[in-house]
Design a protein that fits this description.
This protein is of the alpha+beta class. The strands form two sheets. A three-stranded antiparallel sheet has the order 1-2-3, with helices on one face. Strands 4-5 form a two-stranded parallel ribbon. The N and C termini lie far apart (41 Å).
Length: 150
């Protein structure tokens, strides 16, 4: 699977492409494949990192169940700098907040599908990316949403 690692302030992020779509983003790695989609995804990720891009526009394919894809679709619709709760997504999908939390934790394309914008009913919760909650806070601060944390 072609992959390209992009250094960011949140750590090196590796973009994985399969069949003309971004399928995964992982922390760390050292990949340098060059495809038109990976080049564009890297450009957008660098622009996000620089604070000049607020919405990604990339073909993505989320592996998993229909529910996993539905949760990722809900997450992808959260605007830059805003947050929603697991309960908000659960109500929209007619599911439990716990099920949404599990699906959120299984998001295969973090940052681009901004699961860091999903909070618990009482505020900040965990984050499945490298660095855990500290990385989530850094991403929210980057987007100007840190005021929601206090």
């Amino acid at each position: 699977m072609p992959a390209l690692t992009v250094p960011t302030q949140f750590g090196p992020l590796t973009l994985f492409e399969q069949g003309g779509a971004i399928e995964r983003v992982e922390w760390d790695g050292d990949h340098a494949d060059d495809t038109p989609l990976l080049t564009e995804a890297a450009r957008q990720l660098r622009a996000y990192d620089a604070g000049t891009l607020t919405q990604f526009d990339l073909p993505m394919r989320v592996a998993g169940s229909d529910f996993q894809r539905a949760v990722c679709d809900q997450i992808a619709a959260i605007p830059f700098g805003e947050t929603v709760t697991y309960g908000d997504i659960a109500r929209a999908l007619g599911q439990s907040a716990q099920a949404v939390g599990n699906a959120c934790g299984g998001n295969p394309i973090p940052v681009i599908i901004p699961c860091h914008r999903v909070m618990g009913a009482k505020g900040l919760t965990g984050f499945s990316g490298k660095g855990g909650v500290e990385t989530k806070v850094a991403l929210l601060r980057h987007e100007g949403a840190a005021g929601l944390l206090i």
